[in-house]
Amino acid sequence: MNTAPSSRTQVKRGASKASYDPALLHAIVDAAYVCHVAFADAHGTHCIPTACWRSGDYLYIHGSNGSRMLQRLTEQDCCVTITHVDGLVLARSAFNHSMNYRSAMVYGRFEIVAEDAKRQTLVDFMEHLAPGRQAEIRPGNDKEFAATTVMRIALAEAACKVRTGPPDDDAEDMHIAAWAGVLPLGAARGTPVPDAYCAQPAPAYVKDWATS
Amino acid sequence: MNTAPSSRTQVKRGASKASYDPALLHAIVDAAYVCHVAFADAHGTHCIPTACWRSGDYLYIHGSNGSRMLQRLTEQDCCVTITHVDGLVLARSAFNHSMNYRSAMVYGRFEIVAEDAKRQTLVDFMEHLAPGRQAEIRPGNDKEFAATTVMRIALAEAACKVRTGPPDDDAEDMHIAAWAGVLPLGAARGTPVPDAYCAQPAPAYVKDWATS
């Protein structure tokens, strides 16, 4: 499980933190609302954040048909990266300071999701964001679907890198009288803010948002 | 203030959300612990997360001298992106769902920070992470500084994009009986975890971590 699927996914720096385990990759993708997509065109290399979701062994993104990025992504390989920062790691020397994190990099070529599958994948996306909500709202109409491109990339050529745990100090620094440990970071969910014109009671995915 | 500094920073999709205000750019960078850097080499386009900090009108990153990324970044322009996801925006139609976010994209070429300035910039970085900590720990030694490259990119050719506020529903959807509003997201700070061998009292930046 810990063999890189390709030469460009072979982690070289901090290789002990590398993992090629699909279950870890899926967990990192599922915890994300956005990914960063790197691609190139005549103007240079770009790094664009966009909403993402997973279904099976694919990562999905969507956007307007007119999007420059979506057009380019069918023509070339790209790199999709997701990063969760889990904490600041405070060591007894400046040099050994670090961060705890979980990151995933996926290489490959996006493909356009065909018209018939597109509608179901967008329902999957809604289910990921707010389980049960699709049945409450107005679903997409033909014009909206026609304006939307959905693309997917296989989660095949990928690498994860994870750091967890306390600082890794040099033995000769252990006597230093500095606090050492981890300052945790994570994703916070705040109290839902109803729209000014909303008279509806909050469904479970709203009521439980800040505490789940 | 709302004029793009170059053609490649001219936001085309959702241009009403674009800003080229340096104060906003600085605030987005200062709120980040990591950025994503996109660059290309013979193996393709890469998107690599790395720690970052700001000093003046530059964004700084650092790493091992042997880092492939740092070597490439002196040879070519790249794109550095920072994204903060602030909430899920739940509209009355599937199509009008959105996210609230603050993002910044910076284009340009990194330059290596010269040896004499390097040590001060790393002190700036520590001050950004944990104010006052630099005086408590063992500072870098010559060997550690020699192994570390610090690079900076001007915050000159940049664009920000921000969405805030409630859903933007179509007028004809306002009667739909679905909860509508924003599910806020943000960065959470957890209770500090002291290292098993740490007998030091927590300084202010640790004690106040989870509440500040």
UniProtKB/TrEMBL annotation, chains A, B:
Q: Which protein, by its recorded name, is this?
A: Pyridoxamine 5'-phosphate oxidase family protein
Q: Which SUPFAM superfamilies match?
A: FMN-binding split barrel
Q: Which organism is it from?
A: Massilia cellulosiltytica
Q: Which domain of life is it from?
A: Bacteria
